[in-house]
Design goal:
There is one protein chain. The chain is mainly α and about 60 residues long. The chain has one domain: BFD-like [2Fe-2S]-binding domain (Arc Repressor Mutant, subunit A, Orthogonal Bundle). Helix content is about 60%, strand content about 10%. Helix 1 crosses helix 3. The longest helix is centred in the C-terminal third of the chain and has 20 residues. It starts with a strand and ends with a helix.
Length: about 60
């Protein structure tokens, strides 16, 4: 699903970027350009980064 229409960034691209070591919204924005134009995608993009962070923490403790 497209998260950022302006930059044509999908949720899968965001997750892959997080898997590659991106752990903050500012890093994500620098790498993929999300929320750098109209900003409508920022809330969803932030939630995906947080979701990935929580999943990574859970995996580390298991």
């Amino acid at each position: 699903m497209y998260v950022c229409i302006c930059r044509q960034v999908t949720d899968n691209q965001i997750r892959e970027t997080c898997k590659s070591g991106c752990d903050s919204f500012s890093d994500l924005r620098a790498q993929l350009g999300v929320a750098s134009e109209c900003g409508c995608c920022s809330k969803l993009a932030r939630s995906i980064v947080k979701e990935f962070g929580r999943a990574a923490e859970t995996a580390q403790t298991a």
